[in-house]
Amino acid sequence: MEILRVPVGADADIIFASQVARNVASSLGFEYIDRAAIAAATTELAYTVVKHARKGEVSFNFHTEGDKQGLEVRVENSGSETESAEMLLAVNGESNLSSVRSLIDEFDLETDKGAGTKIAISKWLPGEGRRLSEEEVRQLALRLSEQEDALSLEEIHDYNQELIHLLSELKAKDRQVGKLIFELKEASKEILALKEELERLTVTDPLTGLYNRRHFENVITTEIARSERQQSQFSLLFFDIDDFNHVNVSYGHQAGDEVLVDIGKVIINSTRKLVDTAFRFGGDEFAVIFLGADLKQGVMIAERIKTAFSKVDEYGVTFSMGLTAYCPGDTKDALITRADAAMYRAKMEGGNRIAEI
Q1: If DSSP codes are grouped into helix, strand and coil, which group holds residue 3?
Q2: DSSP code of residue 98
Q3: Looking at the structure, do residues 130 and 227 belong to the same domain, yes or no?
């Protein structure tokens, strides 16, 4: 809906168009900074467009789109000497518009791709504002058609320059805020990464990379509860190195550490990823939880660990392994006690074997 159409061909006409732009924006409910920006952009656009021809027009239009209402200011010339809008808006051109791009960038911009100069800027009203009826817009158009200019072109130009400076400062502040937000996001990522690393360190054995005894206590409790709830099963393997002291005494503690590291690698490569979970209790004691595995399946995985380690072993290392399976009603302590007893029995029977309970 057209609110008002203003012919422009002289400075006085441009002054009037600027004043109308300010009053229209105010009547529609735009905030102060938006009113000033609309008036300033109207002035500069009208002056730039009209100077390339003998005359032109500025029209103010009220438009709606769904729940949104807004103002469109359309400037077009009608003289014999016209220039394309794209050329006028070129940043590196000689057009006066290159100095007010900071104003134009505040709006939705539309240009006519053909010959002649037709440029429209538009801005939506604040979403929380009151919707205007067609009758209210008609009354607004009637009032505005009776207004006269109040400011000189020089005063408007000075005001526009102040506004451009203000918008420039606001954009600089926005960039600073954006930089701070980016830095905060990066710092948050670093903090999160450090938090995750700290959490990993609290549950991980630093030498082998396996989980530690503390994490075992949490996992075994969780798996017992899951088995009770889902009526599923799992097996628990305990094992240690037969006469590990011999390795440390004969080959040195560094060799002993290498053996422990190799055991960790072998367990990880021999068990089912995302299914089985391995732990180092400290010293030469290890544990593995085999999810969904009964005793028979647990023995197969334990044998796989023994066989795989024998292929990388340089010191004649063997294991005493104790295996047990979860039974309905088992407590954590009962399950651990059985696995420990099975490992002890394997050691008493000469080591280098798997005992089941």
Answers
A1: strand
A2: G
A3: no
